[in-house]
Amino acid sequence: MPKNVELSEAQHSTIANYASSFKGSKNIEEMKKTVPIKEALTSADANILMPKVIQQIVLDSAQEQLVATPFFKRVNITEGRSMEFVHFGALRAQEVSETGEYPEQSLNLTKNGVGSVEIKVKKYGIKISISDEMIADSQWDVVGLHLEAAGRAMAALKEENAFREMTTHGHTVFDNSLFEPGDEGYPTGRGFNGEYNGTLSAEDIQDMAVSVMSAGFNPTTIIMHPLCWSLFAKNEALVGSNVAAFGQGVAGNDPRQFNTSNALGLEVVFSPYVPFNQADKTFDFYLIDKDNVGVQLVKEEISTEQFDNPMRDIQTLKLKERYGLGVLNGGLGVAVARNVEFKKTYPAPERVFDKMDLPSDMKGDEVNKHDEI
Predict the structure, then answer these.
(1) What is the pTM of this model?
(2) Tell me: the pLDDT tens digits for 285-323?
(3) Does domain 169-292+331-371 have CATH number 3.30.2320.10?
(4) Per-residue three-class SS string for the chain
């Protein structure tokens, strides 16, 4: 596709009309007035306009899927295929006296003493095929469905890459696969029998927020899989509290009034691309500073290339983009709970020693651990 081409007002109008056609006509009469696809593809400006129309359709459908990617600040790269970023941590400005020396921000060597991270650009793409009959019959709507599906597929891959980076390079606060019940890195949610069951308690969420704050960042957002919301909305350990399930109010409220606008003062967002292991019924959970997550290096926007296969009467459309994602500041702005059990959480049993057997962590020397902060 020609680059840096100045488009006229008429051409911009044509792009808008073509894009509208791909997204579907409102009725039969309107469809009859639509320019045939074959005519659009063979017009004088086809090689300039159609790639831009396709790019617009793909980008519009992709934007609707993006949840984690917008937290990665965009940096355009023109030279090379990688860029190195220094881990500065949270920057602090200070008062400077008259004729005084300006304070210098010292390097924050995080992540096992590593003071920088290299983010590499990779290429991602997809290929879709459209039959000549579909073009001859001017099936704008059907072609549009193909393009929108391709856009969603590209966005889904980018989201999966973003969450993979956050899980791998974020600050792991809890991980059921690495720690045993009672260990510091094991969540403190309890099952019906009062024993630790690998679920998150309200105190665990607060600990994750504190881990972000202790690094000098500001916890703003919780990210979880949509299926996990029901766990927190039904969290027995929060029933009757003034917090309930992440800001849902006290017990007895109409469940139809549930919302996610206030979770312990934090924004809650959902994405189906958050890691969720359906076989083991475990999931990852994030609490982040949305302004200090990472960087998205963009080498090439989504672009298209069309080629024919006359042996099969198929028009093939190739979509590709080049970018790289990386978490900054050693992941200290991203608190992660990994491999959390997809189970219900119950409050700790009452300390009525003559009526019930206490859990193992409330007996003998284990009792003293509960005094620690």
Answers:
(1) 0.72
(2) 999 999 999 999 999 888 877 766 666 677 787 889 999
(3) yes
(4) CCCCCCCCHHHHHHHHHHHHHHCCCCCHHHHHCCCCHHHHHCCCCHHHHHHHHHHHHHHHHHHCCCCCHHHEEEEECCCCCEEEEECCCCCCCCCCCCCCCCCCCCCCCECCCECEEEEECEEEEEEEEEEHHHHHCCCHHHHHHHHHHHHHHHHHHHHHHHHHHHHHHCEEEEECCCCCCCCCCCCCCECCCCCECCCCCHHHHHHHHHHHHHCCCCCCEEEECHHHHHHHHCCHHHCCCCCCCCCCCCCCCCHHHCCCCCECCEEEEECCCCCEECCCCEEEEEEECCCCCEEEEEEEEEEEEEEEECCCCEEEEEEEEEEEEEECHHHCCEEEEEEEECCCCECCCCCCCCCCCCCHHHCHHHHHHHHCC
